[in-house]
């Protein structure tokens, strides 16, 4: 039976909005990680059967099939195709699922999965602002009694349902920064990050969103986004960011032919739909489904990456699953590192598989909430010594 293994995973540093990556075109940012991943693996670009790329804001500089444009910008052979997909925040995690499925089915021998988002250059929600009508048709409005789908409302509803106080949310956000600071100081991100050359001649080498001086007192001074008595603030939500990440996926047989040592294999992958009004609770059923399909339990998983779109998403997931927080986002998450929408799924996967290899963890699980009430979940298996 064919399998899908990851032989290399690389990401850019995550840049703050209007920060170090603001002047880098998202096509060129994508091309940077495409070339980095092949250079590190020692694989010729002409061997790649397809590039499957996630991107949410597919307008302007990110329009026109950014996957194909990135292949051309990377100066890869014109024979290498690319396709761009959009599953909201989980776009590049879904790209990995599609790439792995293509490899397992025999349609590909080698594929690159990943994604990008330049939220500085293409602001969040840009595709809805082009004046071509409402994405929610009358049928959708009728089905949900005219309720507007809103991620802040969803995050607040999770905090209410799972009794997550403002203090808990801020404490969790602070721990995200503290874990990221520790990981940075210990050099834990060095193997996964490829520095990006920027137009002024310098290089961005590390994530810009990590705050060493954050305190619970400072976080407590931030106003709620809404309503006035709400619990969700800019401090306990993910950061608006720029970044890209990529994973090199191939069959185990092909990796052996090329003399490559895989980092991990894609053990099990799934996606679920959930309530689009609450919107952000999908990682809970997605986790249950992927564990069931894998024949594993929560205790079998040595590390989890649960995207920190909001602290309440992780808090709800923790309380619903009963997982131990010390295994969740051990190197910090999107609250500290940032959330470049279409690139975040690949960023989480890159961080997770490198962490699994470094710590000798056999199984890791990744899950992300997505707009419209969906969630992807992936289980990776460390292949070292197996």
TrEMBL record:
SUPFAM superfamilies: Thiolase-like. Transmembrane segments: none annotated. InterPro entries: Thiolase (IPR002155), Thiolase-like (IPR016039), Thiolase_C (IPR020617), Thiolase_CS (IPR020613), Thiolase_N (IPR020616). Its EC number is 2.3.1.16. Residues 261-381 form the Thiolase C-terminal domain. GO terms for molecular function: acetyl-CoA C-acyltransferase activity. The keyword Transferase applies. Residues 5-252 form the Thiolase N-terminal domain. Keywords: Acyltransferase, Transferase. NCBIfam families: AcCoA-C-Actrans. Belongs to the thiolase-like superfamily. Thiolase family. This is Acetyl-CoA C-acyltransferase. It comes from Rhodococcus artemisiae.
């Amino acid at each position: 039976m064919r399998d899908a293994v990851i032989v290399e995973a690389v990401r850019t540093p995550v840049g703050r909005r209007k920060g170090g990556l603001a002047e880098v075109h998202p096509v060129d940012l994508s091309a940077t990680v495409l070339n980095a991943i092949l250079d590190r693996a020692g694989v010729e670009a002409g061997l790649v059967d397809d590039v499957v790329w996630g991107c949410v804001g597919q307008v302007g500089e990110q329009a026109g099939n950014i996957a194909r444009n990135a292949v051309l910008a990377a100066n890869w052979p014109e024979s290498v195709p690319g396709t761009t997909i959009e599953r909201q925040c989980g776009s590049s995690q879904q790209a990995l699922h599609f790439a792995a499925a293509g490899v397992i089915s025999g349609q590909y021998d080698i594929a690159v999965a990943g994604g990008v988002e330049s939220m500085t250059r293409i602001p969040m929600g840009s595709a809805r602002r082009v004046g071509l009508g409402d994405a929610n048709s009358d049928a959708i409005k009728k089905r949900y009694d005219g309720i507007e789908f809103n991620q802040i409302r969803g995050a607040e509803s999770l905090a209410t349902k799972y009794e997550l106080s403002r203090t808990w949310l801020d404490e969790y956000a602070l721990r995200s920064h503290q874990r990221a600071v520790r990981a940075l100081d210990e050099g834990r991100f060095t193997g996964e990050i490829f520095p990006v050359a920027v137009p002024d001649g310098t290089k961005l080498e590390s994530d810009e969103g990590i705050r060493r001086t954050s305190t619970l007192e400072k976080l407590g001074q931030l106003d709620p986004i809404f309503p006035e008595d709400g619990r969700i603030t800019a401090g306990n939500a993910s950061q608006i960011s720029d970044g890209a990440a990529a994973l090199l996926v191939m069959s185990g047989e092909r990796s052996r032919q090329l003399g490559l040592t895989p980092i991990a294999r894609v053990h099990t992958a799934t996606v679920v739909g959930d309530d689009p009004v609450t919107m952000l609770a999908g990682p809970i059923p997605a986790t249950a489904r992927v564990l069931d399909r894998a024949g594993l339990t929560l205790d079998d998983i040595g590390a989890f990456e649960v995207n920190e779109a909001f602290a309440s998403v992780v808090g709800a997931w923790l309380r619903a699953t009963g997982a131990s927080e010390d295994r969740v986002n051990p190197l910090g998450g999107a609250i500290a590192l940032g959330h470049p929408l279409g690139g975040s799924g690949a960023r989480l996967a890159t961080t997770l598989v490198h962490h699994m290899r470094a710590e000798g963890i056999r199984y890791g699980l990744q899950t992300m909430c997505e707009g419209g009430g969906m969630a992807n979940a992936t289980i990776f298996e460390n292949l070292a010594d197996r």
